[in-house]
Amino acid sequence: MLKKSLLISGLASMMLVTGCQMPEQGQSLQRTSNYDSHQPNGGHYPINQVNQTQSYTHYGYQRYDRDHVNNNGHQDVIPAVDRSLLADSVTRLVLTNDVVNEAGTLVTDKYVLVTYDTQADNREYVADQVKRSALSIVPRYYEVYISDEPNHFDEIERFQHMTSGATGMEGTLDQTIKEMTQSSPQGQYNEETDDNLKIMQQKQRRLIDK
Q1: Do the bridges between strand 100-107 and strand 111-118 make them parallel or antiparallel, or are there none, so unpaired?
Q2: Which of 4, 66, 83, 142 has its CA 20 to 30 A from that of 13?
Q3: 75 forms bridges with which residues in the sheet?
Q4: Which long-range contacts (CB under 8 A, 24 or more apart) does 164-172 make?
Q5: Left, alpha or beta for 158 (phi > 0: left; psi -120 to 50: alpha)?
Q6: pLDDT (tens digit per residue) in 87-132
């Protein structure tokens, strides 16, 4: 359990990257999201997987004064989530569940959509594990939806090159989410009670016995 907690902490820490200045016209935030001119390494933040660095177990700390971070009254650095890296990490974490054979993740500005393939008979139990895996690593403001229907791999993949500002996509995305929730169990995670280990263990036993 401790090793898994460290893994999750390490994955979560690499998700938040820092951007310098507002992007120029036509330049996406993603392209500038790992640069900061104040940094001694030339301003580029390395983004590593956990198995590529030993620093994920270290605590993180930064201290600045106002003059250091403000430029003409504005922050030089824009904290931003690297959505591609978050999607990669969620997919990998979902695949740590032994009963999941394949997984795909789409991350938008407010949704995380996960499609997975499993041969397990207990769909509710697997859905609960997949949902918890995703929620353990994404920022709290994200809504997570999951599906074990194979056709939803293609459904979420078609959005992979879209941006938050794309017009006409919101309705299509909402329809995909509706289909996912109607066709697949969404897990029984409850934020108010799942911090209680005893309640969580009881819930897991009920799911396994189904």
Answers
A1: antiparallel
A2: 66
A3: 70
A4: 164/108, 164/109
A5: alpha
A6: 999 999 999 999 999 999 999 999 999 999 998 999 999 999 999 9
List pLDDT tens digits, range 10-37: 454 444 444 443 333 333 333 333 334 4
The vertex-57 CA angle with 51 and 58, nearest 5°, equals: 125
C-beta of residue 75 within 8 angstroms of C-beta of residue 24 = no
From 136, 168, 181, 119, select the one nearest 8 (Cα to Cα). Answer: 136
The CA radius of gyration of the chain, in Å to the nearest whole number, is: 19
Phi, psi of 95 (to 5 degrees): -75, -5
Q: Do the Cβ atoms of 148 and 113 come closer than 8 Å?
A: no
Q: In angstroms, rounded to a whole number, what is the distance separating the alpha carbons of residues 210 and 30? A: 44
Higher pLDDT, 91 or 54: 91
Give the pLDDT score at 210: 59
pLDDT for position 94: 95
Beta strand 111-118 pairing with 143-147: parallel
CA 112 to CA 189: how far, in whole Å? 15
In this prediction, residues 69-78 reach a mean pLDDT of: 74
pLDDT(151) > 90: yes
How many other β-carbons are positioned within 10 Å of the β-carbon of residue 19? 21
Give the chain's domains with CATH numbers.
2-81 (no CATH), 84-209 (3.30.300)
